[in-house]
Amino acid sequence: MRALRDFNTPKIPLNDLPIFMRLISDIFPGLDLPTKFNEELKETCIKVCQSMKLQTDEIFVSKVIQYQEILHVRHSVMLLGPAGCGKSTVWKALAACHNVGQVKPVTVYEGVNPKAVTSDELYGTMTKTKEWKDGIIAVIFRNMSKEMNGYKSSHIHKWVILDGDIDATWIESMNTVMDDNKVLTLVSNERIPFAPSMRMILEIQDMKHASPATVSRGGVLFINETDIGWKPYMESWREKMEQVPQSVFYLMFMNYFEANIESIRKTFNFSCPIYDMGFVNSLTCFVDAMLNNNTKENMEAIKNMGTEDQKSVFDAIFAFAMMWTIGGSVADDKTVNYRKMFSAYMKGMSKAIKFPDVGECFDFRFEPCKKDWVPWENWVVDYNPVAERMFQNIVISNVELERMKYVLQLHLARQKPVLYVGVAGTGKTTIVKDFLADPSAFASAAQIGRASCRERV
Fold it and tell me: How far apart are CA 307 and CA 338, in angstroms?
């Protein structure tokens, strides 16, 4: 009963878990055995979480232990769950647990995104001159199997991490690796055996495009969006702050975000699906940038304020972050003006330093040194005609351009990616080009993404 229950619960979604437990109770009536945990691994995992500045969440620790139990019986494991649920952190924590107390690492891993390269670049291909060109997977497998190029016999655990969505283009070639053959067969007729110390980890969001043959060949650890959730991430982020912002931002997350996120999702439409963890990640990015990567005048003003003034400023900074994190992704529907509705929503929610009555909340930028909301018109630059410039290269400063560039600047300061969403011709490329044309506007490089969508953000 314990084997049937403990081996299957990690792969069952949260909604179906009560049904499965009732089936178990029907098969084994009156039998209720406690879950058997590896207590030594549990204690080690707690110490590792503390050393990695992570929260010792009970569910997270249990997922690490379940992952280890699956590795004992399967050489191919699928870590399944939505983005931000903690899949990467689970296997990294377990690898750190294996290496605790070791002079040299006994668990090593190498990761690759199969969707970032073509199938030929992944496995290898024959060139036009009939020469064999190795792919990424072929090189990694060969190095681990033959223990060369950095891999040694002292490495007890060698993991190949494939972090990318499953599709038939690349996963079908892995079937011989995932089944009992444990061999990677290449087009060159080379057969690379899967060593006993090797494990293949598939870090994926879903298995919509996986065949039944692929699904049956690997162990599954499913992590729901709410299993670990966003609170441990928020707590780890807060621990890096001083006492006053720690307490203030905790209240902000509880009173502004957690208390309202459900009603926000029901009231507004978004241009693309975003999980709660995605919102929290962006919120913390905005707040960090406003506190640590702002103008020197603003940062000095916050530092020299009294406690009560700091609390008010932190409240307004969180409102500004929430305005662009959630409001920035609100769709602009033709029938319902969700953007205007969200502006009214934010004005009613922000209490410490209220928004001006005139205009929408997006028309203002919070300046800590003035402890007030300042209109974006103050940052619009006057146009100076340049005779030798081509007409299509002329960019005139306006409110929309300046605030989009400011959002981009804050994300670049924290080395976070940015995604501009909009139909063709809305100025996504122009905003990015105009920002990058000024080298003094950014000090570090980050990823800037552009996408086309029927909604405009």
Answer: 36
Amino acid identity for residue 86 in this structure: G
d(C-alpha 67, C-alpha 7), whole Å: 10
Statement to judge: residues 97 and 202 lie in one domain: yes
Claim to verify: residue 183 and residue 286 sit in the same structural domain? no
Cα–Cα distance between 309 and 317 in angstroms, integer?
12
* Token duo for residue 95: 């690898």
What is the end-to-end Cα distance of the chain in Å, rounded? Answer: 52
Q: Give the pLDDT means over successive 10-residue stretches in the chain (457 positions).
A: 80 82 86 79 92 90 90 90 90 93 91 89 88 91 90 91 86 86 89 91 87 84 87 92 90 91 90 89 92 87 89 92 91 81 86 84 90 89 78 82 89 87 86 81 51 41
Instruction: Say if residues 184 and 177 touch (Cβ distance below 8 Å).
Output: yes
Q: Are strands 418-422 and 448-452 parallel, antiparallel or unpaired?
A: parallel
- For tokens 């400011």, name the residue: 406
Q: What one-character-per-residue DSSP string does 369-410 give?
A: TTTEEEEGGGGPPPP---TTS-GGG-----HHHHHHHHHHHH
Q: Which of 224, 251, 279 is at the close of a domain?
A: 224
Joined tokens for residue 383: 């146009």
